[in-house]
Write a structure and sequence with these properties.
Length: about 110
């Protein structure tokens, strides 16, 4: 269901304000400053995105939480700058961790790729 809102003399596509306010009251969107806040925000996003279909209000709320999480990640998460062979090795390690103590772990990784 589409809802229109009159803003500054113009009508724009909107969403259910009461529904959006319920979402905000249940989990207030604030600037993320700690890893615990980031994790809680990510969990809330996961809950919402697990639903088969989102309302317009839920989509707007997910957009807001996603932006807050992205801002925090941009400011705090360091992504190493790697290229070529080192990039392939890092991807292989992440995709298939080697069994601990195994001498044949390299053969296992190469065959699995």
């Amino acid at each position: 269901m589409s809802i229109t809102t009159n803003v500054a003399g113009r009508t724009i596509l909107g969403f259910s304000r009461p529904e959006y306010l319920r979402l905000v009251e249940a989990f207030p969107p604030v600037k993320i400053r700690t890893p615990a806040q980031a994790e809680a925000t990510e969990c809330r996003l996961d809950e919402l995105l697990a639903r088969p279909q989102l309302t317009e209000a839920e989509r707007a709320y997910v957009d807001l939480l996603s932006d807050l999480l992205a801002d925090w990640e941009d400011a705090t998460v360091v992504i190493p700058d790697i290229h070529g062979v080192e990039l392939v090795r890092a991807a292989a390690r992440r995709a298939r961790p080697a069994p601990k103590g195994s001498r044949g772990h390299l053969r296992h990784r190469v065959r699995g790729l």
